[in-house]
């Protein structure tokens, strides 16, 4: 079974005569770079853990993820990256990806779905679907390229997906500036989830300035009265 799984992946990777579904006018598996794809399909995790997965069982497999990351050490792919590659092979319906994204119990499944959305959804959808996660502050463990560990957060990971050109050993197509999409009417002006807190802080600062100003005026008036006396 594992050999068949490996053969299926190899067949999909062969661009000669490829007639399957495309994402952004390309073979979905080609959204990952060739060296990364090769390391994934040769990895133990891919051969032994991914061969029988479908959209439902992949959810179960993702429940065992304990960190995000791309490649590390001698360019070894993480399970996170292998499952992303499997998603690109399966191409689940958008409704399934949204279920992955919106469930609250498996944070690494949410991160995996967010990564898939960034790679495969249309530009406007990427912003609309991912921006709500900028208010998600759950902690994530990240495997670094050197093989170490780093503390990350869901909102930071999603922000990286929206603003960076490369995340987790994967090159991302460049997104247009959000303001351009707003001007074109494709997106509404985004209201930061921190907006109310910032306004409260500004209001508190204004009150402090006003109080200090009154105290300063009282001191000056007091000094003036002393001089007059």
Q: Would you give an account of this structure?
A:
This protein has helices at 2-13, 34-41, 44-49, 55-62, 79-90, 94-102, 107-120, 123-130, 154-163, 178-183, 195-228, and strands spanning 71-72, 76-77, 139-143, 149-153, 166-167, 170-171. The chain is mainly α and 229 residues long. Helix 5 packs across helix 7 (107-120), helix 6 runs antiparallel to helix 7 (107-120) and helix 7 runs parallel beside helix 9 (154-163). The N and C termini lie far apart (101 Å). The relative contact order is 0.10. The mean pLDDT is 85.
Strand percentage lies at 5-15%
Strand order of the largest sheet: 1-2
Enumerate how many helices there are, as a single number. 11
Provide mean pLDDT, rounded.
85
Radius of gyration: 25 Å
What sort of overall outline do the alpha carbons produce when their principal axes are compared? Answer: globular
Helix and strand sequence: HHHHEEHHHHEEHEEHH
Distance separating the two termini? 101 Å
Structure summary, number of beta strands? 6
What share of the residues lie within helices? 55-70%
Structural class: mainly alpha
Major sheet characteristics: 2 strands, antiparallel
Flag low-confidence runs: none
Keywords:
single chain, 229 residues, mainly alpha, two-stranded antiparallel ribbon, two-stranded antiparallel sheet, 11 helices
């Amino acid at each position: 079974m594992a050999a068949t799984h490996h053969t299926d992946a190899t067949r999909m990777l062969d661009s000669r005569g490829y007639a399957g579904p495309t994402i952004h006018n390309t073979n979905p598996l080609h959204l990952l770079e060739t060296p990364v794809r090769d390391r994934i399909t040769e990895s133990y995790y891919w051969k032994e853990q991914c061969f029988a997965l479908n959209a439902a069982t992949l959810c179960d497999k993702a429940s065992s993820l304990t960190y995000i990351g791309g490649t590390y050490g001698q360019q070894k792919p993480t399970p996170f990256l292998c499952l992303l590659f499997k998603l690109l092979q399966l191409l689940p319906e958008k409704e399934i990806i949204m279920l992955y994204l919106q469930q609250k119990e498996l944070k690494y499944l949410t991160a995996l779905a967010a990564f898939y959305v960034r790679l495969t959804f249309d530009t406007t959808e990427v912003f609309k679907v991912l921006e709500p996660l900028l208010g998600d502050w759950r902690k994530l463990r990240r495997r670094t390229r050197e093989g170490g560990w780093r503390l990350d957060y869901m909102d930071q990971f999603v922000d990286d997906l929206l603003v960076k050109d490369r995340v987790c050993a994967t090159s991302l197509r460049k997104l247009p500036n959000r303001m351009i999409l707003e001007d074109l009417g494709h997106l509404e002006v985004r209201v930061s989830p921190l907006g109310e807190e910032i306004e409260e802080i500004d209001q508190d600062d204004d009150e402090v300035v006003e109080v200090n100003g009154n105290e300063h005026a009282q001191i000056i008036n007091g000094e003036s009265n002393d001089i007059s006396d």
